[in-house]
Design goal:
Layout lengths: L7 H7 L11 E5 L3 E7 L19 H18 L7 E13 L8 E11 L3 E10 L2 E14 L6
């Protein structure tokens, strides 16, 4: 992989999420203030069992979560002591769900980093399937220290 992309093993170095809640399969491009990630949506996703039987549609909140995870990778990658940090949602604004996502779709997360400080990360994101925008949101996240573990 090039310096501008990440495979799943590299992604898991930055995010604490694991199956079934890791929603970024690959990062195809990462620049100073922009990241593009991919999720291959398959019928094997656990959420399709109940959302909805006979008409499987990816829940919109999971698209937003995937954007946040992708943005979190970018923010943590820019944080020198990233292994000591966790990133959490603080707020969502201007969330729009424009089109459904179905099994077999390949979704692409495009996240722009608007502001990053030692404690706050402001991002704008879109989810695309092909050329269609299916979801978008303005996101604010907090960077926090990981809790110390007694050893």
């Amino acid at each position: 992989m090039s310096d501008n992309s990440m495979d799943i093993l590299q992604i898991m170095e930055y995010l604490p999420h694991r199956y079934p809640f890791l929603l970024v399969d690959k990062v195809i491009d990462i620049q100073d203030k922009k990241i593009i990630g991919v999720k291959n949506v398959t019928m094997n996703e656990q959420f399709f069992q109940g959302h909805f039987p006979g008409r499987p549609i990816m829940p919109g909140v999971l698209m937003v979560e995937g954007m946040a995870q992708c943005g979190g990778i970018l923010a943590l990658k820019m944080t020198p002591n990233y292994k000591e940090k966790l990133i959490f949602f603080a707020s969502l604004d201007n969330v729009k769900f424009r089109n459904p996502v179905y099994p077999g779709d390949i979704i692409q997360y495009e996240i722009d980093l608007l502001k990053l400080s030692s404690k706050i990360c402001k991002m704008k994101g879109q989810v695309r399937v092909g050329d269609d925008i299916v979801c978008e949101a303005d996101m604010l996240a907090m960077l926090m220290d990981k809790p110390k573990v007694n050893q």
